[in-house]
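Hi V.,

You were right to ask for the full record rather than a summary. Here it is.
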Amino acid sequence: MKGYRFSKFFQEDNNKTPFEKLLELFLQLMIYTSGDVHEAMNWLNELDREHNLTDKNYTMADFIKDLKDKGYIKEEGNGNLILTAKSERSIRKNSLEEIFGKLKKAKQGNHSTQFTGVGDEVTGDIRNYRFGDSADQISMTDSLRNAQINHGINDFTLAEDDLEVMEKELKTQTSTVLMIDISHSMILYGEDRITPAKKVAMALSELITTKYPKDTLDIIVFGDDAWKIEVKDLPYLQVGPYHTNTVAGLELATDILRRRKNNNKQIFMITDGKPSCIKEGAEYYKNSFGLDRKIVNRCLNLASACRKLKIPVTTFMVADDPYLRNFVREFTETNKGRAFYTSLKGLGEYIFEDYERNRRKKVR
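Predicted structure:
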């Protein structure tokens, strides 16, 4: 008897307008082209010729006009087209949905801790009122019942000893520094590693801004040197002809976190290469061959310093060379942090799960 035969089902979203379908693709291309509107439109035109994205009812010229009218791009004085802040926000939002939306609902959580205190979520536990408890914590039903038992109905009195409060989970605040390697190796060997890193950074920043506004996220990039960038700069981020100065990145990240008042602090480092550069005064010491112990020891010293400051470093290594794994293992053991050897496809899920995991901690 012939059974059922199954094939992959592709559901078309017929609710989207032609503009919305092209916009989704255009915003994705903007990440790959590092914010170059002209180059992204060339790619889009090529895709249109190959896959018939538009028709006579809605042409590419119509799409460009709509992009301008709806405020996604604007024209400079010299005629060049550039992104607007609205497009930058849309790219961050799309990155959040693309990466964070894949996670299981059970893993999203509410970022609470095992400790009780001032928070939003009720634990179900009841305790006696203590000085300093807010009025919204008072359990009126339990408090009125105590007053009736203690004082009777005829001479009803509600005293402080009658009050009971509902315990709530303590909400933590976390300060995170995300380090992104922009050395030349991030685009070597035909593999684009910088685009997934940018997507993760934009998604993480959008998550913190919208869901955890009391948290802080600082983004730094490191090549020969390290410097801080703004979230709005992420779509335009490019790899340079740099070596990998991991030391400079860690020094800047540590300096930023020292100034943060939150108890929970952490560093996320996305890299694919070995540390190959340090700065000595005004000069650079570089060695691209193997693991230079002079450079490695500086990294390990900073790993130890971060551990003493209670700043765990989580390394996301997007390369699988055995000797690089040995370095990451030594670095992680020194810092007492964590390391993930992950593919580019799983990078976002790893970072979001670890962000939430660390957010549940309370550092005393």
